[in-house]
Design a protein that fits this description.
Layout (H helix, E strand, L loop, with lengths): L5 E3 L8 H12 L5 E4 L10 H7 L4 E8 L5 E7 L6 H8 L4 E3 L2 H8 L19 E6 H4 L3 E4 L6 E6 H12 L3 E4 L6
Parallel strand pairs: 4-6, 6-9
Antiparallel strand pairs: 1-2, 2-8, 3-4, 3-5, 7-8
Amino acid sequence: MGEIKLYEGRPREERSPREMAAYDYLDQLRIRYRRVDHAAAETMEACEEIDRVLGVRMCKNLFLCNRQKTDFYLLLMPGDKPFRTKELSGQLGVARLSFACAEDMQEKLGLLPGSVSVMGLINDTEGCVRLLIDKELLCDAEIGCHPCVNTSSLAFSMVDLLEKVLPATGHVLTAVELSRAQ
């Protein structure tokens, strides 16, 4: 992946409108954040060096839907925790969850596969996506996420996510408890 450099705040050069909108949103809310730029990070393994440089644990972000594609969910969970559809479905009282398709991700969150992030909620102006966060992540002081593209990563306080970002987007989180046991 090469050497990754740590920056404070937004990039000086112009980036894609999708990425710049994430920085604009954070800046408008007066949220301080650290940033790194890197090659496309599409897997949790690719995020290990990013985690180290940012000093934060990047979370796994999964975009899910019910069988009828009428309910959509954004799940944030520790990257090293296994995801079990049945376990989460039971907690939500949903018969069956599956991964939502790329078209739905683009339509609901304005994101492309590989760049799913809590920052995508800024694009969900109709409140179509329900945010789920594993309780273990809520204990972290900071959250690591992509700024709507997978070639940069951010870290900012969990308090800012909960008290500034989510109220600004109109989203309320549902805390879930996913087990580590096989």
